[in-house]
Structure formats: C-alpha cells, structure tokens
Amino acid sequence: MNEPHSDKTKRNSWFYQWFLNNKATVILINVMLLLIVVWLFANMSWIFQPVGTFLGMALPPILLAGVLYYLIEPVVELAERHFRFPRILTITIIFIAVIALIVWGILTLIPIIQNQTQQIIKNWPLYWQNIEDTFNQILSSPHLAAIRKQISEQISDSSKVLTKQINSSVNDWFNNITSAVGVITNILVILATAPFLLFFMLKDGPKFRPYILKFVPVKFRESTNQLLTEVNLSLSNYIRGQLTVAFWVGVMFSIGYSIIGQKYALTLGVLAGFLNLIPYLGSFLAMIPALIIAAFTNSFMVVKVLIVFAIEQTIEQRVVAPLVVGSKMEMHPATTLVLLLAAGKMFGLLGVLLGIPVYAVLKILIGHLFQWFQQVSGLYEEAPLTTKDLTSPTTTPPTDSEETDSK
User: Fold this and answer.
1) Burial state string for 165-198 with b = 16 or more CB within 10 A and e = fewer than 16
2) Can you state the percent helix, strand and coil of the chain, rounding each to 5?
3) Of 323, 321, 329, 322, which is closest to residue 234 (Cα–Cα)?
4) pLDDT for 256
C-alpha cells in the first residue's frame, strides 16, 4: 500500500529532519528539560525542607551503622558459612566484644589522650612564641634586609586576622550555647541509634538485595543486580581498606614515637590514624604537629621523627596496603586531589571523608547509564560492511608472487 503524499511531504520537511528525526536534537531537548526540572526544584526548595530535616537526622546514624556493617559483616559471614555458627549468636558475641573494647578504651586510652591533649593546649603558646622567635632570627639575617619589612607586615597582619577569627569563634560559641547543646544531643542520639540499626543490618543483611530487586521490573533485574554488586564491592573495599590501614598507621606511629621518646606519642599516633583517612594528604598533615613539637624538644628529635615517618611509610606501602584488599580505588592521584579539594570546599570535613566513596558510586552508576544509552540510542553502532566494501580493492599492493601467478 502506497504511503500517503502528506506523510511523505512531512518526512521530507526540514522540521522533521532537524527536530523530529535527529537524535542529537532529541538529546539536547531532553537535557534542556532536565535542567528546567532541576531549576524548578531549586526554586521550590521549601517543598523539600521537611525531607532535608528528616535526612539530616536519619543519615548520620545510617552512615555510621553502614561503616560498621562493612567492617563486621565479613566476620559474621565467615562464622556462619565455615563454622556453622548461628548468625544471631555471632552478632551477639561481636557486640559484647565491641562493648568490652570500648569500655577498655574509655578506662585506659581516653584518660591518656585527654591528659596529653591538655598538655599540648597548655604548652602551645610557648611553641608559638618559639616559632615567632625563630622567624625573627631568620628575618634579622642581612640577606633578607630588602624584604624584611614586607614579611614583618605580612606576619603581623596574619596574626591579627587569626586572633580576630579566634575571638569571633569563641564569642559565637558562647552566644550559641543552645546550638552547641543541640549538637551534643544529636551526637548522643546518633551514638544511641546506630547500634540498633547495625544489629538489624547484620541480622537481615542477606535479605536486602532480594527485597530491593523485588520492586525492579523483570527486564532490568539482572542489570540492577550487577549494579548493586559492583556498588557494594566498591564501598566495602574502600571502607575496609581505609579503616584497616588507618588503624595500623595509628598503631605504628604510636609505637614509633614512644620508642624515640617523642612527647605526646599516643595522641600524635591517634591523630595520624584519623588523618590517614584523607588519601595522599593525611600522612603529610599528620607530620606537621609532630615536627613542630619535635623541633622545640631538640634538633636530633626532628631527625628521629623523620626516620619514624620513613619506616612507617615503607611498612605501609610494602606490607599493610598490599595485604588490605581494596585499599586502592584505582583512581589517578590527580583526580583524587582535585576531588578532595572540591568536596572539602563544598562540604567541609564531611566532603573530604565521603568524597571518594561517593565519587566511586557515581562513577559506577554513570557507567551503567552510559552502557544503557549506547544500547538504546544506536549512536555507537558501527555500520556493517556492504558487498561493495568487501569487493573494493584494498590499499595494500599485490606481492610479486601474486603478480607472477596472475601472469
């Protein structure tokens, strides 16, 4: 049956060719519609304010419970599969062991760290005065006479700005004592809620994925299952790797500083462990307070601290990190640094800690979305070779033997 003339005319029109039958134009229109929807949501944020308040209260304990879940789940899985222990019994034993460990830390480690921290705060003005005296001695050098005035002004201005910011922060803290109480209350709520969430996560962990897949259309269940597997593997590798390496870094620094007689060894080691959660930059940041304190102990102590740092880095890179599977996210160092700077600028310390795992999850989601787009768009399909292409002469010239045979 012949196609109507009006339909042929419509399909040959420029509007149909450029807008209705053009994949690039359709993609751009969809992107524009998506941006319009985002703009509408941004200008109607008051609708989502209750959702934001709810997430602000619910997410912190969920995140804390999730981190602990990835640490404890392998132990529960090992006891259940290989030793045939009941899952509830294993979880109960682990909870009792963790509570005993926390009580031991509160009774032994916390008082030491608290005492050393108070000493650091008490002696910090002396350290700062020594730093100023050292700068003054350096500035008194005749080689710096030309720029001595400018450096002195910069140091003075920086000192004034720092003092002003500290005073402003102290005043704001005293003026907002109610919000400080609210923050402490939120922390207590998080610490009280997370263990209950963790218990049910460990108890019902194997049921999470089948429950989620039950709501996914049958056509997309296989791809969704693969997506969930990759996300779970990426998060578990990163969390377990980072926390395990950070723990051993803290232990190694604490032991090393204690051996060389560095002041505040335990506090500096614990600080190094926490800062090691920041990739690439954490180890460098952990060295700054240790070197400052060592510099005002004696000059040889600085050398000792550098030796401890070199030994720790060697053990971490050659022994600890290779043994901890997933400590590396296969990310380029430049990507990691840019991501840390951007996330830290936008979300502060929370962005620095969560930027890389969130990036890893988004990378997996975008990768699967791009694969789906490749399949449905048809833009990445290679045109099949035609008979003309197969019979056309190639660019490679015939060999001498082929010419002789043809003759």
Assistant:
1) eeeeeeeeeeeeeeeeeeeeeeeeebeebbeebb
2) 85, 0, 15
3) 329
4) 92
Distance CA 139, CA 131 (A): 12
Instruction: Calculate the average pLDDT of the chain.
Output: 77
CB 265 within 8 A of CB 313: no
Question: For residue range 308-336, what is the model confidence (pLDDT) as tens digits?
Answer: 999 988 888 888 877 775 445 566 777 77
Least confident of 131-140, 197-206, 264-273, 309-318: 131-140
* Cα(292)–Cα(287) distance, integer angstroms: 9
CA-nearest of 25, 256, 296, 21 to 134 is 296
Q: How much is the pTM?
A: 0.70
| pLDDT value at 51 more than 60 | yes
Taking the C-alpha atoms of residue 291 and residue 276, their distance in angstroms, rounded to an integer, is 17
Burial of residue 236 (number of CB atoms within 10 Å: 0-12, 13-18, 19+): middle
Q: What is the maximum span of the chain, computed from C-alpha positions, in angstroms?
A: 102
Rounded Cα–Cα distance for residues 261 and 313 (Å)? 19
Q: What sign does the CA torsion over 332, 338, 340, 343 have?
A: negative
Distance, in Å, from the CA atom of 28 to the CA atom of 72, rounded to the nearest integer, reads 46
Length of the chain: 407
Parse the chain into domains and list their residue ranges: 61-110+187-210
Kindly tell me the burial class for residue 306, based on how many C-beta atoms sit within 10 Å of its own C-beta (0-12, 13-18, 19 or more).
middle
Q: Give DSSP secondary structure letters for 190-249.
A: HHHHHHHHHHHHHHHGGGHHHHHHTTS-HHHHHHHHHHHHHHHHHHHHHHHHHHHHHHHH
Q: How far apart are CA 150 and CA 144, in angstroms?
A: 10
What is the structure's pLDDT at 254?
92
Give the whole-angstrom CA distance, residue 315 versus residue 330: 21
CA dist., res. 286 & res. 356, Å (int): 20
Contact indicator for 250, 282 with CB cutoff of 8 Å: no
What is residue 308's predicted lDDT score, i.e. its pLDDT?
92
Q: What are the structure tokens assigned to 361, written together?
A: 């999850």
Cα–Cα dist 342/6, whole Å: 56
Q: What is the mean pLDDT of residues 9-38?
A: 71
